[in-house]
Design a protein that fits this description.
- By secondary structure, this protein is an alpha+beta fold.
- It has one domain (about 1-270).
- Helix content is about 15%, strand content about 45%.
- The protein has three helices and 17 strands.
- Strands 2, 4, 5, 7, 8, 9, 13, 14, 16 and 17 form a ten-stranded mixed β-sheet that branches. Strands 10, 11, 12 and 15 form a four-stranded antiparallel β-sheet that branches.
- A hairpin with an 8-residue loop joins β16 (about 240-250) and β17 (about 260-270).
- The radius of gyration is 20 Å and the shape is globular.
Length: about 270
């Protein structure tokens, strides 16, 4: 009987650990190329895991929006063309006229529950220190948590040589990163400014993480900063390569609902040369 109880405890612990890992998945759009010619057939990967590796694909029924914004306007892609084969979601589109394109994917909310220890670890590791501090102040570190989350991700692709204003187009996602200036015009050593939006409004003091990968495949170290009173973040682009910017905005929900917390995730990827 004792052995059975131990086995049960271990099994439950493993389930909670798997849930914690699943909940902590980042989502990134990573096209095969970030600088392409006009009329290029593009394959776009959507990584659900880390910036370097996808753990699993995203089912079609989770999608709210898949969009491509070009100089010709915004095109919403048919989710029937969303490929879920293997561990990485993909979709394809063909570039048109030269310009700076925005690719966007938005997912529906999902709710999960984590044991207290797993939830606290997730908050610490994934860049949500304000919620962790509030749980500590309120004596809630020992409480399990139910979280409703959704993810809203974008990438910039430069088509041809002409840069255009589409980079600054908000897609209306509930969490979103909008560049203040066009990253396609910047070079290594420059600073890019981005605005963080939640429900369409700028967010002050939001913790923002950034990092990336050099052209030779070496990692660009992950760092963090916070937005100013206008929701703007300044990020030094110390080297050429593919960069990502991300944030998780989490708020406590009113008692009696189906979740204790709601989080809205946003990422943006782009390349500078």
């Amino acid at each position: 009987m004792k052995t059975t109880r131990i086995a049960t405890v271990v099994a439950v612990a493993m389930i909670l650990l798997v849930a914690a890992v699943a909940a902590a998945h980042d989502l990134f759009i990573e096209p095969e190329q970030y600088h392409v010619a006009e009329g290029t057939e593009m394959l776009v990967r959507v990584l659900n895991g880390t910036f370097d590796k996808s753990e699993n694909s995203i089912a079609r029924d989770r999608l709210v929006d898949v969009s491509v914004v070009s100089p010709g306007g915004r095109a919403r892609l048919d989710t029937a063309d969303w490929n879920t084969t293997g561990d990485t979601s993909t979709f394809r589109f063909k570039t048109g006229a030269a310009g700076t394109y925005v690719l966007g994917v938005s997912t529906r909310p999902r709710t999960f529950q984590l044991a207290a220890k797993a939830f606290n670890a997730y908050l610490e590791e994934d860049g949500i220190p304000d919620v962790l501090a509030a749980r500590r102040r309120n004596g809630e570190l020992g409480k399990a948590a139910r979280e409703r989350y959704s993810k809203h991700v974008k990438a910039l692709v430069q088509v041809g040589d002409a840069t255009t204003e589409q980079y600054a187009t908000p897609l209306g996602y509930t969490a979103e990163i909008v560049p203040v200036e066009n990253p396609s015009t910047l070079r290594a050593g420059a600073t890019v400014h981005i605005r963080v939006l939640v429900d369409g409004a700028p967010v002050a003091k939001q913790l923002v993480m950034y990092g990336g990968r050099r052209a030779n495949g070496a990692n660009i170290a992950r760092r963090s900063t916070r937005s100013n009173a206008n929701g703007v973040v300044s990020i030094p682009l110390r080297t050429a390569g593919v960069w990502y910017i991300e944030f998780i905005h989490m708020k406590r929900q009113a008692a009696g609902g189906d979740a204790d917390y709601e989080s809205k995730w946003a990422t943006l990827t782009f390349e500078i040369r």
